[in-house]
């Protein structure tokens, strides 16, 4: 698989997530997928994503940076959303926040089999703190 072909598969995966097209998730995600070292399997991965959308009703994945080097993809995703309540152990409670997620994917048989993800939680904390203390005190 070439880098442009793998990037195309990844972009189609992101479109699947944004459409909440769970019935087609298995086209992009391997049955034995692992997330941050934990084996979730396709069903567990789907539950994780469904929970993300339940927690963040306006969730939308925006590709900010994408590097494809088969069998791996590295991506910086950008989010501008309003988590309904607690998110990452923070009381966001419907406030709009902007943050990035840096994700590395491993592919097997043209499907995602491993995901390593880090969310920029300090960016969210900074935004929440600035809104709580607008004068900086």
Quickly describe the structure.
With 137 residues, the protein is α+β, with helices and mostly antiparallel strands. The chain contains 3 helices and 8 strands.
How would you describe what is shown here?
The structure is a single chain. This protein is an alpha+beta fold and 137 residues long. It contains 3 helices and 8 strands; from the N terminus they run αββαββββββα. The chain has a single domain (3-132), classed as Roll (Nuclear Transport Factor 2, Chain: A). It is 31% helix and 38% strand. The strands form 2 sheets. The chain has a 6-stranded mixed beta sheet with strand order 2-1-8-7-4-3, sandwiched between helices. It has a two-stranded antiparallel ribbon with strand order 5-6. The model has no long low-confidence stretch (mean pLDDT 94).
Features of the shown structure:
alpha+beta; two-stranded antiparallel ribbon; 6-stranded mixed sheet; Nuclear Transport Factor 2, Chain: A; 137 residues
How many helical stretches? 3
Order of secondary-structure elements: HEEHEEEEEEH
Q: Over the alpha carbons, how many angstroms does the gyration radius reach?
A: 16 Å
Structural category is alpha+beta
Low-confidence stretches: none
Cα distance spanning the termini: 54 Å
Main pleated sheet = 6 strands, mixed
**How many structurally independent domains?**
1
Strand order of the largest sheet: 2-1-8-7-4-3
Fraction of residues in H or I helices: 25-40%
Second rung of CATH, namely the architecture = Roll
CATH class: Alpha Beta
Average pLDDT taken over every residue = 94
InterPro entries: Cyclase_SnoaL-like (IPR009959), NTF2-like_dom_sf (IPR032710)
GO biological process, one term: polyketide metabolic process
Protein name: Ester cyclase
């Amino acid at each position: 698989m070439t880098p442009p072909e793998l990037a195309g598969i990844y972009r189609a995966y992101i479109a699947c997530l944004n459409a909440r097209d769970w019935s087609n998730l298995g086209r992009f995600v391997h049955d034995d997928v692992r997330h941050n070292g934990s084996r979730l399997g396709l069903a567990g991965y789907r539950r994780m994503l469904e929970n993300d959308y339940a927690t963040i009703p306006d969730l939308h994945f925006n590709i900010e940076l994408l590097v494809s080097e088969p069998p791996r993809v590295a991506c910086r995703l950008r989010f501008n959303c309003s988590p309904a309540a607690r998110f990452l152990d923070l009381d966001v409670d419907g406030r709009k926040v902007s943050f990035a997620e840096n994700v590395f994917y491993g592919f097997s048989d043209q499907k995602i089999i491993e995901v390593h993800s880090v969310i920029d939680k300090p960016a969210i904390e900074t935004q929440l703190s600035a809104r709580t203390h607008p004068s900086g005190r």
